[in-house]
Write a structure and sequence with these properties.
With 137 residues, the chain is mainly beta. 0% of the residues lie in helices and 69% in strands. It has no helices and 9 strands. The strands form 2 sheets. Strands 3-9-8-5-6 form a 5-stranded mixed beta sheet, with no helix packed on it. The protein has a 4-stranded antiparallel beta sheet with strand order 2-1-4-7, with no helix packed on it. A hairpin with a 5-residue loop joins strand 1 and strand 2. The N and C termini lie far apart (48 Å). 11% of the residues are buried.
Length: 137
């Protein structure tokens, strides 16, 4: 099982012809801008999408269970099951959209995915972004 993509973004939209559009792709930071007069009031809320694409070799076992976990500064925020349809395609795509996702404070947001078959771990992938604030004029 090989990770092809693990992308964090603002939104994921289902388009015509079975296409997906990823909006507002983040790199290593999510920055909340604020003015000197109005500092951020925590928690801050946003829509947060997670897009994951994995590839299987021909004879590899396929998972029958999966999870996506979100942690902020080490504290678990969300643990969501990944819906798995048993199919033989070599590339699988998963995505999760967290509506009104509450960010309680600046820090490290860690997102991990885990895939299992009958309780045995087949793959685990992690990505992290820094949550920052930035003052503007």
């Amino acid at each position: 099982m090989k990770l092809l993509d693990f992308i964090i973004c603002d939104d994921i939209r289902q388009e015509a012809n079975n296409k997906l559009s990823l909006m507002g792709i983040y790199n290593e930071k999510i920055v909340f801008q604020h003015s000197k007069k109005t500092p951020p009031k925590w928690p801050l809320h946003l829509k947060l999408g997670c897009y994951l694409r994995v590839q299987f070799d021909a004879n590899e076992p396929r998972p029958n269970k999966g999870f996506i976990n979100y942690k902020l500064n080490g504290a678990e925020l969300i643990s969501a099951p990944i819906e798995i349809e048993l199919e033989q395609n070599p590339i699988w795509v998963f995505f999760l959209i967290a509506e009104n996702f509450a960010i309680a404070e600046p820090g490290k947001l860690e997102i991990s995915s885990e895939f299992q078959k009958s309780g045995e771990l087949l793959g685990k992938y992690d990505v992290s972004v820094q949550i920052l604030t930035k003052e503007h004029d």
